[in-house]
Amino acid sequence: MKKLIIALCLTLSAASAQAMQNIKLGGVEIKPVITSQEKYDSNIYLTRDLAKGSLINRSALGLGFMTKESARLSIKGAYSIEGVFYSRSHRINDAVHHTGDIMADYKLSGDRNITAGDKYLATTDQATSELTARAKRWQNIANVAYESPLKGKLGYGIDAQHTVNHYLSTKNKALNRDEILAGANLSFRLQPKTKLFLAYHFGSLKYEERTLAGKGDALYSNVDMGLSGDLAPKLTGKIMGGAQFRLYRRDLATASNSRTTGGYGAQLNWRPMAKTEVVWYGNRANVESTFGNSRFYTTTLNDLGVSREINKFKAGMGASYESVRYPEETVGANAKRRDSNYIGRATLDYNIQKWLKAGAGYTYKMRRSNERSNNYVDNVASLEIKGMF
Fold it and tell me: In this structure, are residues 191 and 230 in contact, taking their beta carbons and an 8 Å threshold?
């Protein structure tokens, strides 16, 4: 499989090197993408002691398309296949990932709009969370949304999403779950490109595993308020805050069945000058878990990145901090698990041609936990080449 994917990358690259433009078949615009990355990871299992390193090759082929069926209807989608190949214990660590998505957008009269889409992933969870081994899984997300003006500067939207997570390993089957989220939002246009919004969504979470049936199942409500669009001169993005009110259907040991969690989400892009960008990403939310008696953990993540273009080069650097808090005490430890995850990174990209880019990067990762067995340090250095035709 490794030889096949790499051979396809080289063949498509050679055949398309002179194109430098998207392929058009009738009314369909096609965008092939090829990437190949070679990196060294000093701690592939994210362990505290006896860290094991490996060379890793990630080679991918992708194909995106876009078509306008009429003045009102447009459809776009993409498919990619990625091979991940390790020099250490490759029979255990090697994997092939598939990603496919499609989205339809239909514009109605009166500035109304309907979108519907589906995204499928056949992938593996990398060892950057509580799980320290690769876990094969598939995920499918289907969604539909409707937006419409209401009166004057007011508008509203209705949306629904259905997510299915299924793990192939029996070690992770307790995380197999089905989730439905539906709700509505009310918006007010403060400026031509700036909106204030208030949103409410109701969610239902149901697990497949019998040992958690009814105990991991929950109903919840999300209430959020925020701003999106042009927020200030040279500053665009979205920022919101709110709370989740979660109610579990059955008891699990001493865990509380009612949980209220304050949260926020933000992605802000600031361009202080031409070819310079500063991006801040922030998020606080609950994530499903099977650790001890904790049915979830709360993550608070903040990430800051800076990039600058100089001729054909683009240099970037960034750092992130994540606080992970588990709500229940670990059995035998008489304390709740608390993790702090630190990441620092630097990148340098070079535009060889309009359609061809090369890049290098370095990432430092560290976890510090009050349960010391979960600590680790990891260093990753990488080289990459990417063709976009």
Answer: yes
CA–CA gap between residue 266 and residue 243 (Å, rounded): 14
Query: What pLDDT, in 10s, does the model give residues 282-306?
Result: 999 999 887 888 889 999 999 999 9
Please report, for the domain that includes residue 273, its CATH number: 2.40.170
Residues whose CB falls within 8 Å of the CB of residue 361, separated by 6 or more in sequence, listed in order: 345, 346, 347, 348, 380, 381, 382, 384
Residues of the domain holding 244: 2-388
**pTM for the predicted model, two decimal places:** 0.87
Going from the C-alpha of 39 to that of each of 45, 198, 278, 341, 363, the distances in angstroms are: 15, 44, 26, 21, 11
Report the C-alpha gap between 176 and 168 in whole angstroms. 9
Give Cα 179 distance to the centre of its chain. 17
Domain count, the chain: 1
Q: Looking at residue 124, what is its pLDDT?
A: 87
Nearest to 301 by CA among 269, 340, 332: 340
Backbone φ and ψ of 174, nearest 5°:
-65, -15
